[in-house]
Amino acid sequence: MPRVRPHSKTASAAAPSPARYPVSSRPAPPAHPAPAGDGTPSDEALLAGIRRADEADFRQLYDRYFQRVYSFAYLRLRNHSDTEEVVQETFTAVFRSIDAFRGQSSLLSWIFGITKNTVNNHLRRERAHELRIERAEPELLRSSSSLASCTPEEHLNLQRSASAIRDRLDSVADWQAEAFVLRHLEDLPIGEIARRTSRSDNAVRSSLYRVKRLVVDAVDPGTVTAG
């Protein structure tokens, strides 16, 4: 599925291709429902097209509700990167479960319900990841006195972990690696890191969390990916 680009105020992202989603097993309606009075296809018309795997109708529904879904999710998450992920997951769920819509509420209310569930699932996953990372951090920040008592095998494992961490830090932008070092090795506050890297506080927080996940995963791949 294409990535969402929500930062544009004038246009939403391209809609996912209908070929990515199952075609409805329902028989096709005899005719396409009539458009609204202004020539814009109604929700019912778009639904009928989507059930026939019509790509244009997929795209119109996506464009019609993208900004409202994005805003709804952002109110809960307050983070653009996380909101982008949730919006993608939401529209994937909408298109895959389109036959579950029975018209007992408005289409937008149904989509908002899916968005709410997707946001809640995302928050639960993030909280679980944070707990795992917090438990793993002491292993990442072991003191020099404890290193002195390591066995040869433990030293070898630490060297491998250090190499994996360097590889992960090399994979991110220079400012993100710098922010991670400033935070976790120099213990600088977020505001000072934001000033030094010319980024916003929120951008620094989001980057630190994501880089920390990469580092923890380098040490113990199952720690971040599990659950």
The biggest beta sheet is recorded as: none
How many distinct folded domains?
2
β-strand percent reads under 5%
Tally of alpha and pi helices: 10
**CATH superfamily descriptor of the largest domain:** RNA polymerase sigma factor, region 2, helix turn helix motif
- Predict the CATH topology of the largest domain: Rna Polymerase Sigma Factor, Chain: A
Distance between the ends: 23 Å
What is the overall silhouette?
elongated
User: What is the CATH architecture term of the largest domain?
Assistant: Orthogonal Bundle
What class would the helix/strand composition place it in?
mainly alpha
The CATH class of the largest domain, by name, is: Mainly Alpha
The counted number of beta strands is: 0
Low-confidence stretches: 1-14, 17-34, 223-227
Radius of gyration: 23 Å
Whole-number average pLDDT? 74
Short description, anyone?
The chain has 227 residues and is mostly helical. The chain has helices at residues 43-51, 55-77, 80-96, 107-140, 144-148, 152-170, 174-184, 190-197, 201-219, 221-225. It is elongated.
Account of the 3D structure:
It is built from 10 helices and no strands. The protein has 2 domains: 18-127, RNA polymerase sigma factor, region 2, helix turn helix motif (Rna Polymerase Sigma Factor, Chain: A, Orthogonal Bundle); 141-225, Arc Repressor Mutant, subunit A (Orthogonal Bundle). By secondary structure, the chain is mostly helical. Helix 7 (174-184) packs across helix 9 (201-219).
